Structure formats: C-alpha cells, structure tokens
Amino acid sequence: MPNNVFPSRHPLVAHKLALLRSITTKPKKFRELVRELAILLCYEATTDLETEPITVTTPMGEAAGQDLRMGIGLVPVLRAGLGMVEGIWEMMPAAEVWHIGLRRDERTLQPMQYYANKPVEPRVQVCLILDPMLATGGSAAATVSLLKEWGVTRIKYIGLIAAPEGIARLHGEHPDVPIHLGAIDSHLNEIGYIVPGLGDAGDRQFGTG
Ligand code: PRP
Ligand code: URA
After folding, report:
1. pLDDT tens per residue, range 127-136
2. Is 77 touching ligand 2 by the criterion CB < 6 Å?
3. What spacing in Å lies between the alpha carbon of 199 and ligand 2's midpoint?
4. Rounded to an integer, what distance in angstroms lies between the CA atom of residue 100 and that of residue 155?
5. How far is CA 193 from the centre of its chain?
6. Average pLDDT for residues 42-58, to the nearest whole number?
C-alpha cells in the first residue's frame, strides 16, 4: 500500500460503515451515516492543515490559540458526493463548495463530465474531493486532473469505500494526492461495482434505485 493511502482505523468509522453497507438501511438513515462518516474522515484527513498562533482574551486572562486561516474548498462529485458536504461544512463554515458533475458511462465505465462550478480564480489553499465510492478510480483521477487544470496545487481525496483497482489508478495518475478512506474492499465486479461495497451510493442516498 502506498504511504499516502490512509484507511481509517477508527472504531466509530468501522461501526457506521457496517450500518451503511447493510441492505436493510433505508435512504434516510443512509444519508445520516454518509454525513457522519464524512465528518469523521474529514477530521482524520485534515490533521496536517497549518494553523497560525494567536492570542485570545478569556474572562480570566490571555490564552494561546491557533487560527485556521487556510482557505478550504470542498469538492463533492455529483451526485453521491453531495451527501458528504453538509456535515463537513458545518465544521468549516468558511469553506467554499465547488461542484463537479461526473457520471460513469455504464458500458465503458469512463467518467463523463456534465457540470462544473467553481470560482474564476482559485482562492483556496487546499481542496478536499468528496465522493463515497472509489471504484475504477476514473472519476477520482478525472476530478484531480480538473482541479490541477484550474490551478489547485494541494488536493486530498476523501472516500468511504475503495476498491484496490481504484486506489491503484488514482495513486498511479496522481501520486501527490493523499487518499483517505473508510475501508478498502476486496475487488470490482464485472460491471465495475465494489464488492462487497454497498451497492450504488447515489441511488441509496436519493432513493432512486
Ligand atoms: C459513482 C460514485 C463515483 C463513481 C465511482 O458515481 O459516486 O463518482 O461512481 O466510480 P469510478 O471510480 O469507477 O469512476 P455514479 O457514476 O454512479 O453517479 P451518481 O453519483 O450520480 O450516481
Ligand atoms: N459507484 C457506486 O455507487 N458503487 C460502486 O460500487 C461503484 C461505483
């Protein structure tokens, strides 16, 4: 495993992932779990963000503190990544949210871009790509390439479940991008789904399955 791939070892993540995977979990609960898992994984993925020392006045005197001045861009990959935004945004209300719409062609499994919305000039120092499923890695690699074309120099990927094939592709094309994951599963099946995975992350969130 490359040294910038970080599968979570947190018991809460493991517990919530098991609930998320279950075929009996309905869309409302599924969305809650996606939101909670995104917060937990974002917490792990952002431990190295730089802060600046500040002093604050408490009712009892002066206290040394830290200020997170970095501009952060949250980049959900539509549709399924949308459910990972809100919880993280509550933790980082100053973050910008850039939307990228990608849909996998069911036959070729190639990502097809249908939407992109970001500021004219990047004003952020780091972008966090949010997408629950890293399957073939095509969508993730295409998203990183797009962000790099837009001038973003520091990018992290946060996903809930990955196949080894997706990790290999994303890391192979973009070795500079740390990959933070809830779990790494066994393999992809013949139609590009992660096994055992959780099925279709978009359909399970939006009730369209
Ligand atoms: C899913 C998922 C990823 C992509 C992963 O999206 O959210 O974006 O597949 O597959 P890959 O690693 O093989 O590219 P999907 O195309 O199903 O669209 P949706 O989120 O709109 O349902
Ligand atoms: N997209 C999903 O939603 N699930 C998979 O298993 C693979 C791609």
Report:
1. 999 999 999 9
2. no
3. 6
4. 15
5. 18
6. 97
21 C-alpha vs ligand 2 centroid, how far in Å? 12
Q: What pLDDT score does 33 carry?
A: 98
88-111 pLDDT, tens per residue? 999 999 999 999 999 999 899 999
- Ligand 2 pocket, residue 42 CB under 6 Å: no
Summarize the confidence of residues 148-152 as an average pLDDT. Answer: 94
Nearest Cα residue to atom 7 of ligand 2: 193
Measure 94 CA to ligand 2 centroid, in angstroms. 30
Which ligand has the nearest atom to the CA of 20?
2
Q: Which two tokens stand for residue 148?
A: 């790099």
Relative to the CA of 111, which ligand 1 atom is closest?
A: 14
Q: Where exactly are the structural domains of the chain?
A: 5-49+68-206
- C-alpha distance from residue 42 to each of 60, 131, 179, 188 (Å): 33, 12, 11, 25
Q: What one-character-per-residue DSSP string does 102-142 give?
A: EEE-TTT--EEEEEEE--SS---SEEEEE-SEESSSHHHHH
Fold entry, domain 5-49+68-206: Rossmann fold (3.40.50)
